[in-house]
Amino acid sequence: MSPSDSKSRDAPKDVDVSIIVVSYNTREMTLDCLRSVVAQSPDLDFEVLFIDNQSTDGSFKAVESEFGSDARFQIVDSDENLGFARANNVMAKRARGRRLLLLNPDTVVLDRALEKLNAFADERSECGIWGGRTMEADGVTLDPRSCWADLTLRGVFFRTIGLSKAFSGSEFFNPHAYGDWQRDTIRHVGFVTGCLLLIDRFLWEKLGGFAPEFFMYGEEAELCLRAKTFGATPIITPEAAIIHYVGASATTKWQTRVKINRGEITLMRLHWSRTAAWLGRELIRVATACRMMVFWAISKLRRTEHNRNRASDWKNIWAARSEWLAGYRSSD
Question: In the CATH scheme, what architecture does the domain 2-146+183-244 have?
Fold first, then answer.
């Protein structure tokens, strides 16, 4: 890696929050994100630890050009694509804050959200992990992916047989998404997602950061499971809201699904019983095979480009099953 620190600091002081941003081919969104951090955090004592994961769109140079002279920024160009989990682990070692804030580069901070989130953490300091509310691009429509319930065998089963979608508003049939809860109340959750995750630095260090097995997707769920064994109780507040352009750095939708499957299967292997993990993995295999066949049939009955693309996506996901069925390994 080649760090580009804006100024040398003989005796750097500690800060309240170390904001870690991991970038991959989202140059303009990344710049908008960092601008919003600065503009919407006038009273927050923060530093930004930025790392670019070998982008090919000029992200590193653009960030260095605009923010390299700001003493609050450390800007790093990675010599390999570390993925989300490892890149955060690397940058966390540089942190000086009493808390770490993981922030996706495809986000925009609204209405001093980071200040509000940190203030909420002060009020509920015993929780250890805190999150907020994510909105779609219009800033009004809810994006529910700021948090989820813990993955369970019941939830995977209902998802496989279609009951989670048929009864999406039910917390019983759609437990992973908390039914139709609008993320509009303070609530303890299974895990906070990495697009906006504030964590006590001492807790992060005690956990050793993200598990080394993970590349992208599933790492924050696994982190929160381990954190709860140390007494953490992840919680979100609706007062801290950001815009999240979901999956902006993903190459294709089907590759994202491969990573999600792989992450879920890894989490099952690490935290479920051997029998439950095997059942969960097989349910994901069955669900993928069924969707591939269903969308293939739909593409033949209704020959639209949209249907052909969906059929192609599920065919590609199924073709990559040897990759995701194995999950992640620490050497990956």
Answer: Alpha-Beta Complex (3.90)
